[in-house]
Amino acid sequence: MTDNRDRHNTVEVVTAGQAFENLRLHIAEHAGEPDVEAGWARLCQAMDEERPTARWRRSAAWLSWMRVAKVSVVSGLIAASVVLAATGGWWPAPLGVLMFLVLADIWRQQEVRWEAEEHEKRERRYQKELVIRRAARAARRDELDQARRARHDFEFLTVVVMPAGCPVGHSEGAAADFTGMDLSTVVLSKLNLIGAKLSGTILDGTSLRGANLYGADLSGAALFRADLARADLTDAILVGADLTGADLGGARLAGANLSRARMTGTVLSNAVLQGANITEADLSGAILSAAELSDTDLSGAVLAGAYLCGAHLHSANLSEASMPGANLRNAYLYRANLSRADLSGANLTHAVLTHAVLIDTDLSGADLSAPSDLQDVTWSEKTLWGRYRSEVQRKSIPIGRGRYKLNPQGGTTRDTVLMPSVPV
User: Fold this and answer.
1) Contact at 8 Å (CB) between 343 and 326?
2) What is the pLDDT of residues 92-108, one digit of tens each?
3) Contacts of 239 (CB under 8 A, 6+ apart)
4) What is d(CA 214, CA 255) in angstroms, rounded to the nearest whole number?
5) pLDDT per position as a tens digit, 201-255
6) Burial category of 40 from C-beta neighbours within 10 Å (exposed 0-12, middle 13-18, buried 19 and up)
7) Burial tier of 341 (Cβ tally within 10 Å: 0-12, 13-18, 19+)
8) SS3 label, residue 297
9) CA 189/CA 139 separation, integer angstroms
10) Quick one: DSSP state of residue 31?
11) Other Cβ atoms within 10 Å of 226 Cβ, number
12) pTM of this prediction?
């Protein structure tokens, strides 16, 4: 008996609205048919459109109090009228009736006011509950839509596109072919897409986080603001791809071909691009902090305003690269080729430029560490040193063909060599 009482006390009380909502979710999860969804949507809409009536029913306690008050007032007036009639004649009776009518009118007006206030309170409470119910239904509907979309994506990738029994993205002697398809709503995170054919595919905003795209063909693909963080794009082909605003943080792009790719504002922090081909790509405003770019070909690339703090550019080819205003603070440019590059206004403080080539390079307005820290740097008569011109002249020696060596390992011979006038 005690157990039954305890179980009765612990029963969860739910409202009718909550019960209907649970029933709708149950039908949606287990049935999922379009007609069921449509029918339930009509029922929910009808429930939402319900509004309280013009007059709300008062509570039992309030009605009881009103009844007692009215009876007391009327009884008092009758008693007063009888007493006055017994002691003073007939005139008190009409006076009592008049008083009763006046008080009844005042009471009626007060009752209407109380009723209006109660109606307004209940209306506000109803609207608040309605908003909460709609928000809960919308959140649950989004969860169901996401789950349904994930199931559809899985069926699309494993049944529609892939041969039977083959893993996603790779099969014996063939790779998944998504050429020209619109996959902007498909979730491809952590999928195996080795060698997949994604040329011209629309992947704007698609999540490819952690996906394996080794050797995949993404030439001309639309990857605007796509999530490719920690994805493997080793040896992938991304010629002419649109990676504007995409997230490639921590991605592996060693040996990838990114020539002529649009990468404005792309995040490549901590990405591995060793040996990649990024010629003539637009990396304006891109974030490449701590990126691995050794042996990378960036010739003719646009890196205006790019953030390359701490980037590793050992033996990188940056010839004819446009890098005005780029931030290369603490970058490692050992043996980097910066011939004919535009580094005007760039920040190169504490950057390592040992054995770097600065032939015909524009460094006007650039912020360098002391020229004495630049070891074995090769430059030419057309190199623009800006405010560092005089000091560079004093610390350089000619090496022939109009070229000079700054701070050579064997020391300078300024006292015996006449240095030419170096342009600003």
Assistant:
1) yes
2) 556 666 666 666 667 67
3) 219, 220, 257, 258, 259, 260, 261
4) 10
5) 999 999 999 999 999 999 999 999 999 999 999 999 999 999 999 999 999 999 9
6) middle
7) buried
8) strand
9) 23
10) T
11) 27
12) 0.61
